[in-house]
Amino acid sequence: MSDQYPELFRAANVMRDVHDRCVWSQAMTHERLVPYLVEESAEVIEAVESGDADELREELGDLLWQVLFHASVASNRADDPFDLEDVAATLAEKMIRRHPHVFGEETAETPERVLELWNAAKASEKSERRSVLDGVPMGMSSLALAQKVLDKGQKVGVGEEFLESVAASEAIEEEEGVPLLPQSEEELGDTILGLVAVARARGWDAERALRGRMRAVAEEIRAAEVEE
């Protein structure tokens, strides 16, 4: 394997040398590395959106460095240590389970069928979960969190009032010919930016406002699950 991907193993060896011989790196913990992981992830996203292949290659390397760094830190843990080999093995085993149409006897002719198989495999792996919200990282940005929580809430009938509001606005648009809702992602971006501008002008924290609202929706979802 090292012969097939020599540069990947070279990077792993560089990380090991850095962690063994750099005093700053030796002082790092998983917790201290989190801000760098968040920053590098954001820079990958920016590179994707810019369409610059050279920039994307570099930023993916920086993100890979974070994976190598966490694995190196974990290899020195006193309790339950693991290394890059363990991380890679866990990943490969999970991806094989979640692609039975590739590695098993299932067939999938459409992307929708692939998602069905993926979700079935994931549900089997996470059978101990008791809520549709289990596994949703609440540390996501508020917009991404809102989209994820509303998607999960739809499965237990929570958040339907937001859909009803959209349906009502669309009905008015159709009857009066006056667009009330954004008609494209670009217009949606303008609308969201406008709301952030309103928040700024009034001294509100837009991130905190949406995150607080999503906590309330999450509580509604968990309450609905208890009632089922």
UniProtKB/TrEMBL annotation:
Alphabetized Gene3D superfamilies for the sequence: MazG-like
Enzyme class, broadest EC rank: hydrolase
Outline the extent of the NTP pyrophosphohydrolase MazG-like domain.
Answer: 29-103
The answer to whether keyword Protease applies is no
Q: What is its EC number?
A: 3.6.1.66
Give GO MF terms, alphabetically: ITP diphosphatase activity
InterPro entries named among the record's database cross-references: MazG-like_dom (IPR004518), NTP-PPase_MazG-like_N (IPR048015), NTP_PyrPHydrolase_MazG (IPR011551)
Under Pfam families, the record lists: MazG
Q: What keywords were assigned to this record?
A: Hydrolase
Q: Which NCBIfam families match?
A: mazG
Name recorded for this polypeptide:
XTP/dITP diphosphohydrolase
What species is given as this protein's source? Answer: Microbacterium amylolyticum
